[in-house]
Sequence to fold (721 residues):
Amino acid sequence: MESEAQRGEEWFLAQLEADEQDVGALIGWLDELAATGQWQRARTSAELLEGVLVERGAGAEALPLLERQAVWSAQPASFREGCRGRVLACLGDTPEARLMVELAGFEQDAVKLPEAFRRLDTQRRLAPGVLVYEKTWGGGRVARLDWFDRRVIIDFENRAGHGLALVYAAEALQLVEPDHLIAWVLDRPDELRQLARDNPAEVARMALRSFGPLTIPQLQEQLTPRIFPADQWKKFWDGARKGLKADPCCVVPVKRTEPLRWTEQPVEAAADPLRALAGERSMPRILKLIEDQLDSPCFKDLDADGQAQVADRLQLVMKGAVRHPELQVRALLAAHALRLPSALLDHEQGLRVYFEPSALLPVLSRLPARDRGRLLRALAEMDAPMIQRALLTHLGDLESTALREALTLLLERGQAEPVQARVRQQVEDRTIGAPLLSWLLRNEDCLATWSLGHVGDLALWALRALEVRQTGEGLKQQNELRKRIEQPAWLTRALEALDPPGRRELARALRDSPAWPPMDRRSLLAYLVKADPELQETIIERREERDSAAEAAPLTSPRMFRARQLQLQRIVERDMPQVARDIGIAREYGDLRENAEYKAAKEKQGLLMRRQAELEQMLGRVRVMEFSAAAPVTVVPGCQVRLLYPSGARRTYCILGIWDSEDALGIISCDSLLARALLGKGAGETVSAPDEEGDGMCAVLIEAIDVLPPAVQAWAEGEPA
Fold:
């Protein structure tokens, strides 16, 4: 074994000395090292190869090495600190490369490094003529890239010349391969229509290969009216269904709510899981095949050949999922559950990296819900004290499902007292977030048992948590808090638990909360007054400290006012009618209590109605800016300001309305932290404002205040993209 490892090392070093390197083979060798748990050796060798490639002018070929090192790193946070510079060294430190790296999110902690590399790859491959797909606009062809304005112009199917911000394009665009349905739609539409008439099953298979499993309504949405009119759907589907049912590689479900599936091998092969596994190349399907069999007799007593076969497929996932650490974790968990020998796949060594919170927290947020508990329990089997310390330290950083699994594990293992202390500390520090509050809503008995307070306190904490802007999983938890507060019986219990000052605090918090549209908030306040008439005075009182600036109508540019008008128009004229049609179609599927599509459509309708109300309220309040021809005496919205920082650097900003921002022109919103620090100040004054990096505060001198330059005025008065 030692001689084989030594020969591999000698081969690698010889390749580094060669005039040209077989980069693919070298990366494959590094993947094998990592898959067998030799992380340090893989990292060191990858750094050597990276240096050789950059030195020889082939730095772009080294980007996959950096991606892997981001996953293999023992200290992801410290690796991230130098990642931007190393990426630029690979690409060449040009203005275009710097912009791509910035937009990919390498310096944003919220963007995980594998995702940043994916976004960078998307930007690098964008070029005129490239085919793309975006879930809202559909398929399109890149017309041009405008690096100065940071936009990509795309001729979409139903909208030519549509501009997308490069930062959004990197995040949302899918590059389309030649065999994708969208490529046929854009390049071979007549052939595709003819194929739909002659062989409807093949067009359905093409959609399944392109987009993955689809329910029948989802398939219809992809094909009509893109390929044929909606009134021809029934004829198409009758023909397609017959062909798909005769195809051994297709699964046609009985229920419309279940997805159609297409596999590369006959479905009957699933009767023999090992035989089905042997020919599988798709990483998600490999994992599903194995995970579905973890408790089956077939996989419980695998012989040596069976173990080797399963380990081989899991190794394929480990090598191919560099950008998807959640797939690697699922592979390691499967090997752990099957107790595969470490010589085949050292799952314990592979899992050990997740004792580090910097690796554990991101992967927990990306794993399927069922696998989060499996990962925590596997780590607890290996080293219970270490994982318990990590979970207790970062209890407030976990998302909802991961938090529930963590608390279950900790409480089962006798950690109730440390958990209580940690939660109590968050309550005292006022840092308790929506996920932990949602857990307490389901476990209200802990309020008294842990001496935290009562249900009235929980209502006040929930209202504070709703003031924090959230997205994704955090927004779901906020919605759960909001729905609980809207329940009359629960709100009554909260009021009854509070003393008079606490009730008034609850009324003020609800009165001033941004979490509800005005109509909904008024309904809740009316309920409070009905339950306790003495709260009427609290609800209608005006806060004396609110100054005239806060009372004044907020400003915005003509451009962004029209953009919000267009958003409202799309909701009213396109989105609301479409969701009404979706609800009508969903009603036809049967029992509404078990109808997932009906519930989803109704939830979407509720979200659209709330967004419509918010836009109508905002458009009714804001005032469109008028640009002065004379320079103002103090900093106000609609002026240009030049700042001198302690480092000697000078920066010029144009302060516009609350919705305005454009980095390329130096435009910032009057609601930004920097603008709020400057408003009302005059030239020559020194103010405390965010520093150049935005990491802290510093003393900034206002050197000059002037009118907006013509380019900024043209942008502000122009048409929205």
